[in-house]
Amino acid sequence: MTVEAFGIEKEFLHDLLKQVRTGRIQLPDFQRGWVWPHRGITGLLASISLGYPVGTLMTLQAGGDARFKQRPLEGAAPTVTKRADRLLLDGQQRMTSLFQALMLGEAVQTRDDRGKSMSGWFYADIQGVLDSSLDRDEAIRFIPADKRVRDFRGQVLEDYSDPAKEYEGQLFPLVAIFDHNPWMTGYFRHWKFAPEHIQLWTAFTDSFIKRFEQYLIPVIELGRDTPREAVCQVFEKVNTGGVTLTVFELLTATYAADDFDLRRDWAKIRGRWNDQQHRLLGDVQPTDLLQAVTLLATQARRQAAIAEGADSDRAPRIGCRRSDILGLSLEEYRQWVPKAVAGLLQAVRFLHKQCIYDTKFLPYGSQLIALAAIFATLGAEAEGMHARARIGQWYWSGVFGELYGGTTEGRIARDLPEVVAWVRGQTEENPRTVRDARFLPERLTTLRTRNSAAYKGLYSLLLKAGASDWRTGDTVNAAVYFDDAIDIHHVFPKAWCEDNGIPVSEYDSIVNKTPLSARTNRIIGGHAPSEYLQRLANSGKTEIPLIGKHVVRHMIDVDLLQSDDFEGFFEHRRSALIAAIENAMAGRE
Fold first, then answer.
1. Residue 232 lies in a domain
2. pLDDT tens digits, 369-417
3. Which of 125, 404, 501, 539 is least crowded, fewest Cβ atoms below 10 Å from its Cβ?
4. Coil, strand or helix: which one is 151?
5. Angle at which helices 330-353 and 365-378 pack, to 10 degrees?
6. Is residue 161 one of the residues assigned to a domain?
7. DSSP 3-state of 453
8. CA distance 168 to 152
9. DSSP readout, 44-86?
10. For 412-465, how does the pLDDT look when each residue is reduced to its tens digit (9 = 90+)?
11. Which positions ≥6 away from 24 have C-beta within 8 Å?
12. What is the pTM of this model?
């Protein structure tokens, strides 16, 4: 295929969608159907409303030698009035999502995060759009097909089932984006032409609606003389299966304009972590690294503004949200990525000292990003005992307070300056994460799997306290951890507990679990503690009292094991674990 076989032009989004509606743009039948999850569509709409690029489309002029059966994009079939002029090779998922959300006039058929089918309408929260502190994704809402939001009992919490209720709720239906005058007229009448609402609408139009009206998409068009085999090859190369553009991909495209390959740079950085020493970084994604880099860059911006006399309330904020990352210049990336990588490596060393060696027992991946930024900022200042104690107190407060689950960008952005100032002695006020952290004793009996950060944290605290393998007496370090397949196992075996009527809420909780090697656990089997202690002694050709010296390092009273006293053991261990948690959250070793 020669260069003359294709061209590239920018076309208005509205014009492209009208071509989808009439059938001038259709799909070659080898394209598979697809429904994006509603969050993916939300992200796409948000990007367009901000003027961000959403990628290039690729089309093929119809009517040439490469003849394919045609079909309309999903949802467009009832409106199609002609055969296609162009076939869409790349961009099906984006164009289908945009057509259904903006032009179809019916509820969008999509799916939730678990893949379950759902239908509804996309709305823009007018005031949310104009709130600069709110991510644009949060200002775009997906409302059920009947336009009523219900709680889990089915009771209606919000109702937008007629225009008056939309006006009252300040929710603009995106299906009206390209013909908004009727809705605007109703909105003004509803609010009796109040000046403040006219002003609000004008600001919303300028910052949101006009973005859609003026949005241009690059379109690469292959000529109708393109051979069939070339079309198939191009399709296989460019089609990505409908994966939403990530912030990493957007920055990759942005930096490419300056001849910088972000993907290659990430691969080079990631290649340094392919060993056991950096196993904790195994789940770090490129967006995670970009978050750490953005934290450092935005922190530097804020500090520079304050140094130049800006009021702290007006200085740029520290952040690592999607919008913050998209604002990261190539110069800033190049400046701060080495420090972010160094911070991640320091964070790994810190976590090893907390006896956290493996991603499956890393309490929070998100807290690792905050930790990396803290170490990158402090550098050598983080190496002192005082600094390590305070960083440790903050870290364990986040873990046992279970504060780093869900959306954490705001907490990370607060913790970075607060922890740094606290470590440097610039303030004696505890960081908010330390102040917010609470651990209720009754939480212990609900910690049963490593889905919980506190469960993983307790496992590591036991290792840090000097827990050694009962059979060998070896204290667990990184080498022993991997070589001996250390994992968490029951103290009173499950089979014994069930035979003796112990409730599952007790025997399967973290109170009845401890780190042991795979071989030690096999010797324990399903036997009573009094029996397996003797089996362990026989296996190591030693005496039970020596085995007991290893058992007590796990915060266990060996006498209670020898007497098979589950109730006494449980209460003693529970108290010991609570004390260990309290010490960690208070910064006491």
1. yes
2. 999 999 999 999 999 999 999 999 999 999 999 999 878 999 999 999 9
3. 501
4. coil
5. 110
6. no
7. helix
8. 24
9. HHHHHHTT-----EEEEETTSSS---EEPPTTTGGG--S--SE
10. 999 999 999 999 999 999 999 999 999 999 999 999 988 899 999 999 999 888
11. 82, 84, 85, 86
12. 0.63
pLDDT at res. 3: 37
415 plus 284 within the same structural domain: yes
Phi-psi category of 115—alpha, beta or left, where left has phi over 0 and alpha has psi -120 to 50?
left
Share of residues in the chain with pLDDT > 90 (%): 63
DSSP H or E run through 360: none
Write out the residue range of the structural domain in which residue 270 sits: 248-438
Cβ–Cβ under 8 Å, residues 24 and 86: yes
Decide if 146 is inside a domain.
no
Q: How do residues 190-238 score in pLDDT, each as one tens digit?
A: 999 999 999 999 999 999 999 999 999 999 898 888 765 566 556 655 5
Question: Which of 369, 403, 438 is the last residue in one of the domains?
Answer: 438
Helix or strand run (H / E) with residue 226: none
Buried b (16+ CB within 10 A) or exposed e, 164-181: eebbebbbbbbbbbeebe
Domain boundary among 438, 470, 494: 438
Identify the three-state secondary structure at position 488: strand
Query: What single string gives the DSSP state of each residue in 121-149?
Result: EEEEEHHHHT-TTS-HHHHEEEEETTSEE
> What is the Cα–Cα distance from 139 to 137, expressed in whole angstroms?
5
Q: Are residues 268 and 378 in the same domain?
A: yes
3-state class percentages of the chain: helix first, strand second, coil last, to nearest 5: 55, 10, 35
Residue 334 covered by a domain: yes
Query: Would you say residue 242 has pLDDT above 60?
Result: no
409's CB contacts (< 8 A; 6+ apart) are: 291, 319, 320, 321
466 by DSSP, 3-state: which? coil
Does the pLDDT of residue 483 top 70, yes or no?
A: no
Q: Is residue 509 located within the same domain as residue 541?
A: yes
Same domain, 221 and 325: no
Same domain as 232, residue 272: no
What is the average pLDDT value for the chain, to the nearest integer? 88
Helix (H) / strand (E) containing 28: strand 25-28
The Cα 374–Cα 417 span in angstroms is 8
Amino acid identity at 538:
N
Which tokens hold the place of 312? 């702290």
In angstroms, the CA 320 to CA 288 distance is 9
| Residue 169: band (very low, low, confident or very high) from pLDDT cuts 50, 70, 90 | very high
Residues 264-276 have a mean pLDDT of 88
For residue 382, what is the DSSP state?
G
Two tokens, residue 529: 């503690």
The helices-and-strands tally (H runs, E runs) of the chain is 28, 14
Contact 55, 252 (CB under 8 A): no
299 and 220 in a single domain? The answer is: no
Structure tokens at 270: 């990631």
CA distance 24 to 17: 10
Q: Torsion angle of alpha carbons 336, 342, 344, 348, nearest 10°?
A: -170
Please name which of 392, 416, 133, 407 lies closest in space to residue 296, comparing C-alpha atoms: 416
- Distance of alpha carbon 410 from alpha carbon 430, whole angstroms: 17
The half-sphere exposure of 235 on its side-chain side, counting CA atoms within 13 A, is: 20
Residues 554 and 428 placed together within one structural domain of the fold: no
